[in-house]
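Morning!

As promised:
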Amino acid sequence: MDAEEFRRRGKEMVDLVADYLENIEDRPVYPDVEPGYLRSLIPTEAPQDPENYEDIIKDVERVIMPGITHWHSPNFFAYFPTASSYPAMLADMLCGAIGCIGFSWAASPACTELETVMLDWLGKMLQLPECFLAGTHGQGGGVIQGTASEATLMSLLAARCKAVRRIQATNSDMSEMEILSKLVAYTSDQAHSSVERAALIGGVKMKKVPTDEHYAVRKDMFMKMVEEDKADGLLPFYFCATLGTTPSCAFDKTEELGPLCNEENMWMHIDAAYAGSAFICPEFRPLLNGVEFADSFNFNPHKWLLINFDCSAMCIWVCNYGVILFFLLPGLVTDYRHWQIPLGRRFRSLKMWFVFRMYGLNGLQAYIRKHVVLAKEFESLVRADKRFEICADVVLGLVCFRLKGSNELNQNLLKRITQCREIHLVPCQLSGRFVLRFAICARKIESHHVQKAWQHITQLTFELLQEPEH
Amino acid sequence: MDAEEFRRRGKEMVDLVADYLENIEDRPVYPDVEPGYLRSLIPTEAPQDPENYEDIIKDVERVIMPGITHWHSPNFFAYFPTASSYPAMLADMLCGAIGCIGFSWAASPACTELETVMLDWLGKMLQLPECFLAGTHGQGGGVIQGTASEATLMSLLAARCKAVRRIQATNSDMSEMEILSKLVAYTSDQAHSSVERAALIGGVKMKKVPTDEHYAVRKDMFMKMVEEDKADGLLPFYFCATLGTTPSCAFDKTEELGPLCNEENMWMHIDAAYAGSAFICPEFRPLLNGVEFADSFNFNPHKWLLINFDCSAMCIWVCNYGVILFFLLPGLVTDYRHWQIPLGRRFRSLKMWFVFRMYGLNGLQAYIRKHVVLAKEFESLVRADKRFEICADVVLGLVCFRLKGSNELNQNLLKRITQCREIHLVPCQLSGRFVLRFAICARKIESHHVQKAWQHITQLTFELLQEPEH
């Protein structure tokens, strides 16, 4: 394919992309395929000779679309949102063309430098403390990681390294292996599985802190665990706080927990993967209070800030550049390869630049607020129906609800919802109860989508409750 | 930006992309900027209100392009190639529009299933042993990782887990920490820094095996180290072989090393990040012999197989699905989140599908062969000039060469090359000598680019040798 053909096919693809997104509501949001469906639809080997481009495009509809869960459909309320916007897609096209690998400053200076400045822009939008910004000295600040899992892992490795050095400095008779065997990390019993996995990778113990009735970690319970572990000869070194948990969007009390971590020489990392985007609104910023006690902080603009996944999957800021990061080898220039697990990296900050400029802070705030209003609207609908109950505080764009009754009843309701394929939800467990999660996800969602989804849910509920076994 | 505007701006962007790539030779391949250049060119904060799209596009030329190292210029001979092709860019646009997050099968079945089948296609192109393929049972096989660094880390973690279980099964009195403190991993003294880093992350010792005069690990030296370590009470458990090292594209002797690893219960991982793409050509496939002894194998199609970075940054296959992978929790369906560090993942196999079908195996082989021929052409030019020497076997697309003389002389030559910005090279160290690496990189490179590059190098050499201090 030469440049001329690319010009033609590229423009066709732009229309295909716009057509797909404009008409996404016409497709069932959830696919109706069995595991292994795709293998029989395509050859078992690559072709020897080139095929026609038209055949490939036909196969997108024949082979791919039947197996797609349409995350950007306004009928998609599962998981958490994944961002999508036209400016981000345009920036991604440019990123693909430039195709530089920004593992060091010299490998493409613009790739490193725009990233540093964009993370400062974002840090200012969030009103992060100064120590989290690179500022004019141009070092430190934030970095784009691939995913929140990687950010958590990096923070845990940095904390592990710092703890070993600190403990060895005062206990020169302790070997590194002895220290490692006594280190203990903590996180909420509501934290994402990737936090536990980071500890597994790093080869350190991790304990789950029980949460209160709002699914938040509180100081008293945490302090009790830390004291007991210290009495047992363990070495507490790391706490991963969650702001906006995956099951219910609960918020750990970082304002209480942060000072405790600081006193105990424990690294506090804040994982705000979903909720972080909302902190650009002054009315939600108090949820981030306590960040001034944190050593590192991350959230995913690719979830809720209109920047498509893979461009800006996550950001991590490290407070105080002087802190010894595991891989951080400060030099004259920022070489981001030392800040992350992978070596290679794309020019992902281009997407942030395009989106921030095309929306402006006002536009981004309006987007967040609209989603929160729609979640509140759904909450009101649920509360007005006495057969249902709300299962957790509705703070941002997630509503956890269930039918008053058994877990089995709620499992049956979700099964029917999934089978109908008109809307898509996923469940969670809260205090041993099977709960439905309704997350506001799509960029183009409006009130009537929420209303229609609720009508659908109540219709299926009606049918379910009519049946003899209930 | 609504769909109508995206249709217009998207088509403009397609032309911008084609214009950039068509005229890339007009730009100096290496930028002329100082660290921190970009910060002063843009505001210190995000705008409050939306800006004009035209202003953003103007800023691409004003702010970004001066700081770009043009990896796809035919005058770029640095590092290793990073892939770029129009079919991959079209697939990436589609990937961005679908925007599904394929962390589990259900999150978008097509995303998981196409990946499994594409890795089988690729495995067949490479004539991998059957045990590396998923086949019709649809499980196991390969997975796309972000980068080779992540693949190495995953393989080391899997090996660590397997070793601990195996050793504990026969030594029930040994604690996990005791085992970890005695585990030892090995790799070549020519291996990429990410291999050493994987061991640091995993908290295990890693030793570098000295290489022979071709910069390859041989059995005798390796066996000697393993025997000595065992005698010292250590537990050898992992060897990362390199096929195509970063400095000189050297090949460890995996046919000798593999049986040794198997006998010693050591996991053998093969890192063929750059060279792997060449193994689709029958004449280069013997370089992969010995893979039948490996537990895992990876290479980067995003380097040399025309699939842009970030779509298919790397592939890893694990021989025998039954092998206990660290995170692998086999179920009815393949949930790739258990195969990798990140949770989220894009629909990266779309790029493989587009590229394989638009080029066909013949087209891909022709592409590899052309690059190898051009490297041989450059090698001949160097060999014909008695002032220069070739420093390592030229097997694929990399030529390591230097001026006969001091390291300082060669450093000066490279400095002049870099300052002229007509071509771009990076150096390496081989046996303590400063060596220039000439890697065939660009998709659109032709013989005349190689000839012109050589003329430029000899012209600068002439000027350098004229100067009084030489």
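The CA atoms of residues 103 and 336 of chain B lie 6 Å apart.

Hope this helps with the figure draft.
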